Structure formats: structure tokens, C-alpha cells
Amino acid sequence: xxxxxxxxxMEVSVWRGDAxxxxxxxxxxxAYDNQTVLDVVSWIQQQQDATLTYRxxxxxxxxxxxxxxxxxxxxxxxxxxxxxVTRGEKLTIAPLRNLPVIKDLATDMDEFFExxxxxxxxxxxxxxxxxxMVPVDPASKNRITASEGIECINCAVCYSACDTVAANPDxxxxxxLQRAWTLVNDEKNKDANxxxxxxxxxxxxxxxxxxxxxxxxxxxxxxxxxxVAGLKRATAFKFWRKRG
Length: 244
Prior knowledge:
alpha+beta; Fumarate Reductase Iron-sulfur Protein, Chain B, domain 2
């Protein structure tokens, strides 16, 4: 962080607790120019309360591990500047919604990634290591569609923003479904039909209500809602082809 401006300070309220419950605690933190929310959390942990638990790694918007709820909205905190989210208001920081809390601001990501597995979101190569490499046209429709969602950083911001996940814990969620759509369009993935079967089950793509929060809050500008819509079309076409 750069030097403090006129020795200003701000009031920050941070959720403290675990899976059994918790409460907000207030801290007074010095205000700095170009200060991120992660800077604030780190300052509290380093200068005021060493017991504060949170998660981060890269600090440059690549790993996604620092995502938290900031003033009621899910955000990646390493790239969220305080002056862009407070506007003079008190800064309130909490763990991501829709995920079990381990402690304070750190959530348990197991169910988030387990849903990737349920959605068959693991790449299954169509050829072996000794087979000739199959060329892929980067300008092909399928490759362009697959590439649209490949930069997901697994931050779970879209999962936290999703009201369908909040209402239906079995819903696979936008990140897992976007990964599934990427694989459906990946020419090097072994079997698109297996993926479509997985995402058409209960809690799959047809549970999405298309509210669009996933796309609105994605920190890297992806469009999970478009991917889910693609899965809805593809699974419907597969169903009617089978019926016919």
C-alpha cells in the first residue's frame, strides 16, 4: 500500500466465527491510496488481530482464492479497491455465501469442486499420448465457444452470487456448468454425450433460473449464463433426437 492520505482512517466490520455461527467485529484501519480490500484484511491480521483467518495466494487476480463478500457482494479482494466499493460507507467484509465456513473469512471449497466432478468437468482426452496430435482450428465455432469459458479461475464468486444455489443446494452451479459447456465444445474431449447426460440430471442446467448474477459478478468477465443456456439447448436437442 502507498502512503496514508492525511492520516485518515476507516471503520471496517469483519465477520468472525466458524460453522457454528459468529458475529461482526469492528476495526479501525488506516486509509491508503490505491488500497485493496485484501490490503485491509491483511493489515487487520498483521497489526490488530493475528487470529483472523482468510485465504489468499497470488495477490494479482490469477488464483481466485481471495474471494470474499464485500459490502454484500461477492468479489475477488486483491483487485477490488476500497474507494470503488465504499463511497464513504463503512466497509463490511464476510465469507462467500453458499459455502460452509471453516473459520472467519475462509470457506470450505470441497462441495464447489465436487460439483465439477458431478458435471463431468474433467477433461477426458480423445486420443492417447502415442497417437498423432489432431489439429484444431482456432477459428472454428466449437473452439471459439470452448475458449470463451476456459479462463475460469475457480474463485467461486459466481457460485456465491447464485440465488439458485442458495435455494437448491443440489444445483451444480454456474462454474461447474460453464466447465461442462467448455468440454462439450472441446474437440479433444472424448465424449460430449457423457457430459450432457450429467448436466441434464436433477440439479443440472435446467435448474438455472437465468437471473444472471453469475455473469454480472464474474471478476474475469466470463459469461456462465450463456454457457448454461448452451447446455439447455444441447441437452434438449439430445433428448428429442433420442425420442425421434
